[in-house]
Amino acid sequence: MTVQAQSALKMTAISKHFPGVKALQDVSIEVRAGEVHAIVGENGAGKSTLMKILAGTYQPDGGTIEIGGATMGHWGPREALDRGIGMIYQELSLVPDLSVAENIALGRMPRTGPFVDYRAVTRQAEEVLAELHSSIDPGARLGSLSISQQQIVEIAKVMADKPSIVVFDEPTSSLGEKESRVLFGVIERMREAGIAVIYISHRLQEVMNLCDRVTVLRDGRHIETRDIAGITPDQMVQLMVGRELGEMFPKLDLEPGDEVLAVDGIGRAGQFVDITFEVREREIVGLAGLIGAGRTEVARAIFGLDPIDTGEIRIQGAKVKLRSPRKGREAGVALVPEDRKGQGIIPMLTVRENFTLPTITRLAKRLFVSPRRERSLVRTWAERLKVNPPLVERPLSAFSGGNQQKVVLGKWLLADPTLLILDEPTRGVDVGAKADIHEIIGEFARDGGGVLMISSELPELLAVCDRIVVLHEGRITSVIDREQATEETVMRAATGQVTA
Predict the structure, then answer these.
(1) What's the CA dihedral at 125, 131, 133, 137 to 10 degrees?
(2) Helices (H), 32-117
(3) Which whole-number Å values give the CA distances from 113 to 104, 286, 287, 490, in the listed order?
(4) Fewer CB atoms < 10 Å away: N or C end of the chain?
């Protein structure tokens, strides 16, 4: 039997129930050593629950787990770690105030007598970061790093334990193209070393390019496992949702109206220079570029989070000085941020409370909020946006990422903006939720709104946007109409090979 054919992990007839919910029903999966095995499915399909059982976080109600052919008895987080299970979750598990090296060594700091050996801590971090082809400074404070750099540190932390089975949960959701290529190289080396890799991603093209086999889950059940060579992305989607979907990124054919936004030569020291473009009514304009190009920084400035040093911003033809988000809201600007967990929602609050955060004063009568009016409005919007289930008094933390993103969108649509800025609006959400979010964006544009959309998924920008403004190192290198836009033309501009 070859290394590739040996069974590294076998989970058989795994079941898990929560109050009122059958999260997993008799799910079986086998992953081979030296294999990259994808698990795909909509949010709520059971992927996370299955992986939390593998990690020892949850105990299954039924079924067995075998590691390297041996059936496991008592199974918890310590046993999972001891048996070589490495978990890289979408949500980071790092400490912002510690250094990169300390985060990588957290829980197993090398010591000399009673003291931590910080030279060994740094040396270990340098070695594992070098394996990842990363130039991150081991001495840097973690909180000073970008989201994408923090994700590289998360991967380094797991790799320092020399795992035999590694689970990647949406690992490229915060990475740019260059960093993703580095990650794919690391995964390829894992495959060559005989490590079993489980790869969870909503980016089906990544699955097609990277993985050997794919297992599809739907509604807590195992639907099918196939060799990648024997399945197409469209077939994967159909298995995931149990139905055929129309175009994932439906094109809108709308007639642009009056100017909603105009930025004229705006700049901010160290971030972007001489940015000029406009967004009109019933128009979706894309903002493309690699990580560090300045896309998010431009969006933050237009919303009023960061002041501009030069140039001017006009909203519906009127020059505005947006010195704060409150000024941005008053001018009719809404921003759905890149980091929904850190900036877009308050997880412990209910769906209703999150929905009405930006508009609470509009719902108030005298000094009190009308609970009846608030509940009625939120319930209507939750149903319109297909929040599932539409239980507005449930804490938002109990909902999937796709539903949380719909609430972030909904709270700003409830504020009735004229300009909607979207920073990675479909990052980390499943294919069904992605289609719903595109439908919401399309409805907003049809109703006369202007949309400025940032996305790292080029197919999304190419299909949805009327024009694409491309940034490279804080400058506009190209503005491309839909008819002329291709992945090649956008990437040439994003890498600085062409200039405006």
Answers:
(1) 10
(2) 47-54, 77-82, 100-105
(3) 21, 57, 54, 56
(4) N
Q: pLDDT tens-digit profile of 164-198? A: 999 998 888 767 777 788 789 889 988 988 999 99
Residue 356 domain-assigned (yes or no):
yes
Element (H, E) at 423: strand 419-423
Question: Would 247 be classed as within a structural domain?
Answer: no
Whether this model's pTM surpasses 0.70 = no
> Is 358:332 a contact under the CB 8 Å cutoff?
no
The number of helices, as runs of H, and strands, as runs of E, in the chain is 17, 24
Residue with tokens 């990648």: 228
**Are residues 220 and 293 located together in one domain of the fold?**
no
Instruction: Tell me the C-alpha distance between 231 and 409, whole Å.
Output: 34
In a domain, 322, yes or no: yes
Q: What is the number of domains present in the chain? A: 2
Q: Which of 241, 269, 295 is the last residue of a domain?
A: 241
User: The domain spanning residue 319 has which CATH number?
Assistant: 3.40.50.300
**pLDDT tens string 130-139:** 988 888 999 9
251 within some domain: no
CA distances from 1 to 4, 5, 7 (A): 8, 6, 10
Longest dimension (CA), the chain: 76
